[in-house]
Write a structure and sequence with these properties.
CATH topology: Tetracycline Repressor, domain 2
Shape: globular
Mean pLDDT: 92
Order of helices and strands: HHHHHHHHH
CATH superfamily: Tetracycline Repressor, domain 2
Low-confidence stretches: none
Helix content: over 70%
Largest sheet: none
Keywords: DNA-binding
DNA-binding region: 32-51
Number of domains: 1
Structural class: mainly alpha
Protein name: TetR family transcriptional regulator
Number of strands: 0
CATH architecture: Orthogonal Bundle
Radius of gyration: 18 Å
InterPro entries: Homeodomain-like_sf (IPR009057), HTH-type_TetR-like_transc_reg (IPR050109), HTH_TetR (IPR001647)
Organism: Actinoplanes couchii
CATH class: Mainly Alpha
Distance between the termini: 48 Å
Strand content: under 5%
């Protein structure tokens, strides 16, 4: 068996992908760099050598998640630059549940002094991106984000998405009321 050596960007992407899985499961406080290393098949010192600290690894993971959302929205806006178009595209991320859970963990860690500025910047950049892509008002973007957070929470709880649990009556009522349906 011939082993191919990964390039630095490929190794970075591999570690961030492992970190998405690990941080989705344990959050910032409950995840170790050793867990990420084991998922990626590398040593824990190698993770630290590449990222410097668990904090920097987590921030790279949150940035990755934010960048993924931004790419989804840019692609959607090329065809349908409306809030409905972006909302429908966001729902495709329900297939990437761990990514959405990482975003939730990132926002929850936003009060941490070492994480807060970067997490708020990520959220703010996404807010501005929606306004730029759609031309919507700040109020319309606020409502879009409020609904998006609801969709994110419902996806994390497995109320929405490919791993959805059988719906309770309240779920059915809530899902019927979701905006940006296509």
């Amino acid at each position: 068996m011939v082993r191919t050596r990964l390039t630095a960007p490929e190794r970075h992407a591999q570690l961030v992908a492992a970190a998405v899985t690990a941080f989705a499961g344990g959050g910032y406080a409950g995840t170790t760099t050793d867990q990420v290393a084991r998922l990626a098949g590398v040593s824990q010192p190698y993770v630290i050598r590449l990222f410097g600290s668990k904090q920097e690894l987590f921030l790279a993971t949150v940035r990755h998640a934010g960048d993924r959302v931004g790419r989804i929205w840019r692609d959607a806006a090329a065809e349908d630059p409306t809030l409905a178009g972006l909302g429908a595209a966001y729902k495709t991320l329900l297939d990437e549940r761990d990514l959405l859970v990482v975003l939730l963990h990132g926002f929850a860690a936003g009060s941490d002094p070492g994480l807060g500025d970067a997490v708020r910047r990520c959220y703010g950049e996404l807010f501005q991106l929606v306004r730029e892509l759609t031309g919507c008002t700040a109020e319309e973007a606020r409502d879009f984000f409020a609904h998006g957070m609801l969709i994110t929470v419902l996806g994390a709880m497995r109320v929405l998405g490919p791993e959805a649990v059988p719906p309770d009556p309240w779920m059915i009522d809530l899902l019927r009321a979701l905006p940006y349906q296509k």
